[in-house]
Amino acid sequence: MNLKVVALAFALGCAVSAQAAADKVIGYFPYWSQYSQFYPKDIRYNTVTHVHYVSLMPGEDASLNFVDENDATNFKDLVKFTKENGVKLVVSVGGAEAEGNLKAIASSEELLPTFVSNIKSWLSANGGDGIELDWQNITAEDAEDYSKLVNALVSDMSGMIVASSMYPYMAQEAYSAETMNKLSYIDVFMPDQMTEESSELVPNQGATKIHEMLSMVSDMGIEKDKLLPVIYLYGKSFVGATGYGSAHQGFGSGNEGYLGYNELMGKFDEPDYKVTFDEESKSELAVSNAEAIVFMGIPSVKAVAEDVKSEGYSGVAVYELDQDHHEPIVSLLVTIGLQLRPEVNYKPKKKK
């Protein structure tokens, strides 16, 4: 199967009519992109409305620091290029293993105002249009402290973006609609559905599962036009699997079974893989003699974007920018853009 031909057919389909503006396209740019030789200059800024930089780590004393100080120069470039291209730059604060410090800050009458002040000072000194609060490993017991932190940020950062990540499958009770509706927008993450511990092969994501997740969150009373699903731009490979429902013998090719979407397109140029689109889950599956790979491709990502637009959600986020394909005809960001921002010219610039 020639995947690029299939990609063209799906990507160039007509956009559905919108019930509400679903015009945000957010791309995550993590600090580790530098180690795969992907830099701020390599971002195709016409494909996104917002770039989320990952990340700043909160200290026990409510200070803020780059997770990797070696990335400070790249952040300066990111500020420069986003400004030049009219793209919003949002800094993610928190992340893996930051939940302890965030809880300590949020529950302290002393540290909480210091933390908010430090964020504002950091943005003023370094650049950026706002922050995304990323409280991972949140629990139901954190609900009150999470609300305190969000309320303080929203109250003291007037005129700036105050967004948050959300992990509803981890602790739905941690998020109150009253609190969440105060945010500029919310990036909704789901955990990987396919892991090494899974007894049989299932989709890692899919438009059907993403639809269910967004419906669950909006049913909590959270406004739809605040919500963006996060699409993972990677696939996961498993040795010995032959299709959905089949057994496997652990991770296949890639880094512990992870393969960026751009890597997958190179693999699928070879005739070894049969690639299919599963209508029930609205996800892609590639099977060879050695392994099976579950991923989100052009048809499933297009289905997510169509659903977001027809349901009146805020837009779509992708994780992470360096894993998209650089060719517009195969690009997942372009696929999203053709649905949410069809007026944009996504054709590559002609070489001089």
Number of domains: 1
CATH architecture: Alpha-Beta Barrel
Task: Specify the helix fraction band.
Answer: 25-40%
CATH fold type? TIM Barrel
Total strands: the figure is: 14
Low-confidence stretches: 1-19
Q: What pattern of helices and strands is seen along the backbone?
A: HEEEHEHHEHEHHEHEEEHEEEHEH
Strand content: 15-25%
Number of helices: 11
Biggest sheet architecture = 8 strands, parallel, barrel
Strand order of the largest sheet: 1-2-4-5-6-7-8-14
* Oligomerization state: single chain
Structural class determined from secondary elements: alpha/beta
Which word captures the global form?
A: globular
Summarize model confidence as the mean pLDDT: 94
Describe the structure concisely.
Helix content is 31%, strand content 21%.
Describe this structure as you would to a colleague.
Residues 1-19 have low confidence and may be disordered. The protein has 11 helices and 14 strands. It is α/β, with parallel strands linked by helices. Strand 2 (50-58) and strand 3 form a beta hairpin. The protein has helices spanning 3-11, 72-84, 99-106, 111-126, 143-156, 168-171, 177-180, 207-218, 261-267, 298-311, 332-340; strands spanning 24-30, 50-58, 64-66, 88-94, 130-134, 161-166, 186-188, 227-232, 234-239, 258-260, 274-278, 283-287, 291-295, 315-319.
